[in-house]
Amino acid sequence: MLDASNVLGVIQKKDKVAVKMHFGEEGNTGFINPEYAGVITKEIAKKCASAFLSDTNTLYPGRRIKSDEHKKLALEHGFTKEVTGLDVIIPDDTKKENKAEIEINHRLIKTAKIVRLFVDAGAIIAINHFKGHILTSFGGALKNLGMGCATREGKLAQHCDVAPHVIKENCVACGACIKVCPSAAIQLINKKAVVDKAKCIGCANCIGACQTMAMFVFTESGIAVQEKIAEYSLAVLRDKENKSGFISFAVKINKECDCWNMENPRIAPDVGILASNDPVSIDKASLDVVNKACGKDIFKAAHPNQDGMVQLRHAQEIGLGSLDYELITL
Ligand code: SF4
Ligand code: SF4
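A: This is the predicted complex of the input protein with iron/sulfur cluster.
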């Protein structure tokens, strides 16, 4: 597939290549098999001056919130140099030198906050896991780029008009969410957590803290988040014209993303691996082939409140890529 698609043809011998992927939260099993990733990364390494595997730290509490633990977890999940041929670099985005501000002056995002190493790389190859997502219905190349390359501040900016929703029957009034909320947006009323949407800054800390899954459904502004993801993706690729490639694994298609610290239900059969140099086309093609295999819009069935096409339509509108594609099956 790598040869037939020539997806790595954008890499030149002089390039330092950032390979962006998601190593999976602790307890998650949906992340891409490191040995599959290794087939790709070893090909990348042959074509360039240097390459590294990377991801950014999370907004919510967990082992991936800090660089050292995040890297350890990636190695524990099998993304070792022996398997992939590359070092894992997780930049500490609390340090000024690891942040970059990219002006794009779009409708929702004026200046995007991106982890600098993706901005400085000569080329980006994103290895994406195509699966369901609580907020964007499905996540693929755009999610991996837009949210995945952002600093924590950038992630917050993409989430910031989204307040979590409390599923009252799951709330046991433990108060854990209140302790981690940085903006005092949660209080207990009649022994149930209640979020003050005016105060919530969308940091998602409470979602990570809640052990009973009472605090996890984002329902209100999935549209804005998806459009921001598209605009952030544009910022990540601003200086990468003909210098980016996307490989999406439409396998282990779970209802939720690889940030979940647990196994979650598979909603579709394994379909295959896709490659393209257009991040919009590859997401649309991934969506179509998975839905075709299921005989229905499986992501709509899994997340009825979200329309994942929002991110793709907006991405096409702002010139990031095309919803059209020609699918060549090998
Ligand atoms: S952490 Fe969860 S269970 Fe505890 S009070 Fe908050 S919403 Fe309720
Ligand atoms: S209520 Fe809002 S601000 Fe408070 S922890 Fe949850 S997401 Fe963050």
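The radius of gyration is 19 Å. Residues 185 and 196 are 5 Å apart (CA to CA).
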